[in-house]
Design a protein that fits this description.
Blueprint (H helix, E strand, L loop, with lengths): L6 H14 L7 E4 L3 H15 L6 E4 L2 H10 L6 H4 L4 E4 L3 E2 L5 E2 L6 H9 L4 E6 L12 E5 L4 H12 L8 E4 L1 E2 L2 E2 L7 E6 L6 H9 L4 E4 L1 E2 L5 E5 L5 E5 H15 L1
Parallel strand pairs: 1-2, 1-3, 3-6, 6-14
Antiparallel strand pairs: 4-5, 5-13, 7-11, 7-12, 8-11, 9-10, 14-15
């Protein structure tokens, strides 16, 4: 690992490099969005240029599409690809059950659609993204621009009945104007502090008119690879967590 990299970049690139070990020629890969996912795209492009891998990617945002094209990673649209073998993406937070908060890069909708079309989702992150409870990072909610203040009020009312520590909502801005996503929507960031029941919150938000989608990825990650500043990495698989939970329930019975 290059000594010129910051500790944060060493951790991110270590996670990305470990994920690259799971890639095989012939795969169709979902390419995530964000600084850690960008490391995966860069390292993947090196393997492609060295004729060590023959793969095709499906980008989860315009930002990732531009990066992949610049680096020579072959791309297809999701409609062209149909099914994706594996998506590699980052996360803003993940908990012990491998539930995720995503959307810091405002690409949560396309990220979730691509992940849902994938046989496997592998999340790459530095250790600072691992939390006991989701909520420290603001939860992005993608909303239709029409009536977005009314949608915000509906979200605020819904939060009153949910197990969260904070209920502040802010409209995400960009260059002094409301941010517009790749799909033409706005982002509301929910500053919750702690989310006591992520699945319940996910269900409640999904039922609100005007909400397109939210940044809670519940039960979607098959594995998380944690990169450390010393260049090492750790693979945590959701199946192992589920097996452990089943074992503990049997012991308690």
């Amino acid at each position: 690992m290059s000594n010129s990299l910051s500790p944060a970049d060493i951790a991110k690139s270590s996670a990305a490099r470990r994920a690259l070990e799971l890639v095989e020629s012939g795969m169709t890969l979902g390419l995530g969005t964000g600084s850690t996912a960008a490391w995966f795209v860069r390292l993947l492009s090196e393997r492609i240029r060295a004729n060590e891998l023959a793969v095709v990617g499906v980008a989860t945002s315009s930002t990732t599409m531009w990066l992949a094209r610049e680096l020579g990673v072959p791309l297809k649209s999701l409609d062209e690809a149909g099914t994706i073998d594996m998506t590699v993406d980052g996360a803003d937070e993940f908990d012990v059950a491998l539930n995720l908060t995503k959307g810091g890069g405002a690409a949560l909708l396309q990220e979730k659609i691509v992940a849902s079309a994938s046989r496997r989702m592998v999340v790459i992150a530095d250790r600072g993204k691992q939390v006991e409870h989701l909520g420290a990072f603001p939860l992005p909610v993608e909303v239709v621009r029409f009536g977005h203040r009314v949608t915000e009020a509906a979200i605020a009312r819904t939060l009153q009945d949910l197990d969260v520590d904070g209920r502040e909502i802010s409209l995400r801005m960009s260059s002094g104007h409301p941010l517009v996503t790749d799909e033409g929507h706005h982002i509301l960031d929910l500053h919750l502090g702690r989310i006591g029941d992520p699945p319940a919150l996910a269900r409640a938000l999904s039922q609100l008119p005007g909400v397109v989608d939210h940044g809670l990825f519940i039960g979607m990650a098959d594995a998380v690879i944690i990169g450390d500043e010393n260049g090492e990495s750790e693979l945590i698989e959701r199946k192992s967590i589920l097996d452990l939970g089943e074992q503990m329930r049997n012991e308690d019975a």
